Structures are given as structure tokens and as C-alpha cells.
Amino acid sequence: MNWLNRRVRGFRLVDLVALGLLTMLILGVYLAKTVAGGERAKIAAVERQIVAEKARIRLLQAEVSHLEQPARIERLSETYLNLAPVSEKRVANLEDLPQLAQKPLAMPVKAVAPTPDPILIAPAQPASPLPVPTQVADLAGSKVTQQ
Known about the structure:
Layout: E1 7-8, E2 11-12, H1 13-67, H2 70-80, H3 97-102, E3 135-137, E4 144-146
């Protein structure tokens, strides 16, 4: 008897093998589709994150353009730093540059005495140890002894 025509419980062996292969193929397609759906969900999440990041970038660019407005910076510098626009008497001509280069930029400042190193000025004797407590608890916690 040929193995193609052999019968197992009334079914031909070749039919049972074909049914097993078909079942495995269906299961494989189902698993591949499930995995692909999971990947699609991950891709969609990343795309949503990209859109959110682009919106955040646009918002931050708008905030930077607001913060860099010259009128705002000028107002803040006048308010908090007491700065003002340069007066006309501070403008120099090209011929005045050699004379200005010889002048000091600022008034000389009195030198500040350096702060002494605390390790060098520390006393030679160490500080006295902390006082010993007068009561010490027993290890069992039931008895208190006096020292």
C-alpha cells in the first residue's frame, strides 16, 4: 500500500498532513498579523510623539522670539541693571582713538585682602570630645544603668 493512499481512521494520510500544514500556515499568518499590528501601534505612538515634539519646538521658538525682542531687553536692562543707551559724549572719532587707548579703562580699585585659610589658622589642640551620656540602655531594652 502506498503512503499516499494509506488511511488513518478513515482519512487519507496525505489529507491529514495537508490539514496540519494548512493549520500551521493559518497560525503563522495570524501571528505575523498580530506582530505587525503591534509594530503599527509602536510606529503610531512614535509619530504622535514626533508631532508633540514639533509642537513643543514651535512653542519654544515663539517664546524665544518673544524673549529676544529688543524693546523688551532694553526695558529689562533699564529696570534691573540701570543701563541706558550710550550718550553722544561717549562716542569717539577715529582720530581720538590713540588718546583713548592711553587712558585707563577704569579707576584703580583698592586691593582686597585675601581670606586666610581656615586650616592654617585652626588651633593645634583638637576640640574636646562630646560628653558621654549619663544613661545607657541595656541591649534587651529592659534595664537602664547609671554611669
